[in-house]
Amino acid sequence: MRIQFLLKNTGMYERLGIMTMSSVLKQNGHETQLLLTEELDEEGIVEKVKNYKPHILAYSIMTGEHIYHIDLNEMVRSHYNDALSVFGGPHPTYSPEMINMNYVDAICRGEGEIYFLQLVKKLEQGKDFYDTQNFWFKKKDGSIVKNDMGSLVKNLDNVPFPDRKLMYDADSALRARGSKLFMSNRGCPFKCTYCFNHAYNKMTKGKGEMMRYRSVDSIIREIKEVKNNFFLDRVNIDDDIFLLKPKGWLEEFADKYPKEIGLPLYCNVRPETVNEKTGYLLNKMNCTHVAMGIECGNNEVAKKVLKRNTSNERIIEAVKILKKNKIKVMTQNLIGLPIPNPTKVDFDTLDFNIKLKPHFGWASILYPYPGTEIGTLATKVGYFDGNFEKTKISNKSATSLTLKDEMEKRKINNFHKLFSLIVQFPFLRPFTNFLISLPLSFLYTWIYFAFYGFKYLQHSSFKGILLTFVHYIKFYFKYVSRLEKRIKFSNTKEKVNLKSVTAK
User: Fold this and answer.
1) What b/e readout covers 307-339, taking b as 16+ CB neighbours within 10 angstroms?
2) What's the pTM?
3) Which superfamily does CATH assign the domain made up of 2-153 to?
4) What confidence tens digit (pLDDT) does each residue in 247-266 have?
């Protein structure tokens, strides 16, 4: 069978879910194609779909990009109705009501490696497929079939390596980019209110082990394969928390990785997982940069609102250990929380980051994503109306919270764009409140992208910089101009806004 993945754009980010599903399908004798639609007009999109003649139109989407893809699917199906439209990814998992949208035939909740393949096999064999686990279906009569969640993938070593050629053939910028994504485990035991993991853990309780790990040899084989076939100058381990591993795993990886790979390594850590031993092992692995979640510089708010129970003192200790081991720290922070006077807390976060002196202080605007506790809280206290059309996938545009004071909205949006710059240049701190009050959002957006780009290029090799520079400039010119733009297809109609179950 032919499965065509449709995606607006990659966002300069490898979609591991799509690549892995493509590998699973190809391993079982099916054909796949990835079609990026942003640069095509309606006629061009329809022509490519008709030429490929897919049996399944597949979409893997996050909240914030769902509206475009629902509209895209409706447009495509109005011209080509010989395929089943299947949606997977975070948004359908936590907002399954999207099954009620026009031409949405099926949604997959959670992992797809087992059950999407089962669906494809049933379709190929002409069997009834409405009992496939993890899936919700809409029958021709409009009735909805809601199947239970199935078991989680038990052995990650049995999952084939992601089909990177699929992604790189569609997006040459990703092929040229020297930093490439890998995952060594799935799952997260923490209960941060802004993250989907706590909801997913409840959803899959009793369906298998939450934390699952690839063997060291498996992840190293994948990195070798990518290194041999594509340009690679930095390994980016995209686990939620890289240091959460079974006993002996990190030690084995720290022994083998430098000998067999040796490239600079980047990963995500939590302060609680950083100690003298893990700091030493990261250094031994040639880990040059880590991303560490700080989220909020106000301990009380961090604990009560975000369920981040790590003290500022423990965070300071973790950063010191990392710096001692010559590892650069990128802090990750959240601003614009659904609380009274959010910018006051944002200043606490800014000041704490200035104290930490990270290599790069990153801030995202908080979005109350479906399925998250903070989404429920924001709706309950009146800071969010449940309309996810307001949610931007980029985290680089504007707050989606309902705030009475327009000046407060401006401050949050501008704070986000200037946060990294002020952390880097603390002499700007006394002027921050004035700067974020000015109606200079467009200028600040360009400053934000320029500074982010500068920091990113510092992580790359000279060859990597040369290969990615043109793509990088093209990407940001395009995205800055389209940050707030929603593309509507000519034959799609305004739809009733679907609210998450968390907003009910």
Assistant:
1) bbebebeebeebbebbbebebbbbbbbbbbbbb
2) 0.89
3) Cobalamin-binding domain (3.40.50.280)
4) 999 999 999 999 999 999 99
